[in-house]
Request: fold
Amino acid sequence: MKNRQSISSGAARNHHAGCGTRCSVFLALLGLLVALAACAPVEESRSTFALGTVCTVSLFENGTNDLYTALFDRLAAIETVMSANELADGRISELSRVNQNAGIRPVAVSGELITVLSRALFFAEITGGAFNPAVGPLVAVWNIGAENARLPEEHEIAAALALVNHRDVVVDAANQTVYLKREGMRLDLGGIAKGYAADELVTILKEADVRRAVIDLGGNIYAHGSKTPTQKWRIGIQNPLSPRGEYLAVEEAADKTLVTSGVYERFFEENGICYHHILDPKTGYPADSGLLSVTVIAENSLDADALSTALFVLGYEQGSSLLSRFPGPGIEAVFVFSDATVKRASTVPAEQ
Ligand code: AMP
Ligand code: MG
Reply:
């Protein structure tokens, strides 16, 4: 400590002679930089890699570069809570801490993890476990999306299936803890976290008085406001059999989210069979419901995200029946079948 003090005071002495001039040059430069930053043209859009995907925000009104920064800081904060993987800086997320303590002890978590997990468990209940935030052990054996993805052995799938009961997840909202009852259990919020994140970004946009913006979190889209006072946004639904950017349908949307769960998002092929990332917690294999994608159009992105994954697993018959019973009007789903034909379903008949 003594040593360090003497070094710094020595440095101060050495610089003393020219400090006045240098300081003012430094301050002038700093002022210039700040002024330049303030005048920097507002970006048309900004992208980053977060929540396991490329996230892009485009602000079309009242946007500032500081607002972009605030939005992406929020995404980074959500990632530190909900990521199922190791974080870029080597820290571990709240969710991973819960997973590491499976079968050992309840873990204190943030209110937002309680909120999202509780909603995920609600969807697990109403879908008979088709949507299941405890799907982690299965996700781990398939590892789809990673380089070493491979067809697991039957016994590995059976072992994982024994650990995916969502009723073994204990959320204690009063004490703000989460406990996984059995060792080896693992939460995975990959099917719902992007929806939550999109809703959170929309809240920030409203506070900042931005009325026109598009959020795209890896295909999980929020069309905030409308394109012009008289025109809605036009959002394409990807044709799963065509290259990216070729659409099956174009939806008009204002203050709506469009969330797609599709086989083409993450998959690998082995012996001519496509194994994709949306797993059926009943069979342990990628859901085989005759669908290539499901897009859910709604106001709430958290619900739309959970529903798109759930409807994909359930398939059209069960999925449309669930939707017809789902509380909350105005939610629509676009089911795309293996031959790229399309059927629609909704909570209440869509207005004409
Ligand atoms: P999405 O793209 O929203 O349909 O979510 C797919 C992601 O959710 C996967 O990459 C897994 O991380 C996770 N997942 C896979 N199968 C399920 C399931 N049946 N229920 C909930 N999450 C799942
Ligand atoms: Mg989803």
About this structure: Confidence is low (pLDDT under 50) at residues 1-19. The pocket of magnesium ion (ligand 2) is lined by residues 191-192, 261, 305-306, 308-309 (CB under 6 Å). The chain has two domains: 4-76+192-346, 87-180. The chain has nine helices and 15 strands.
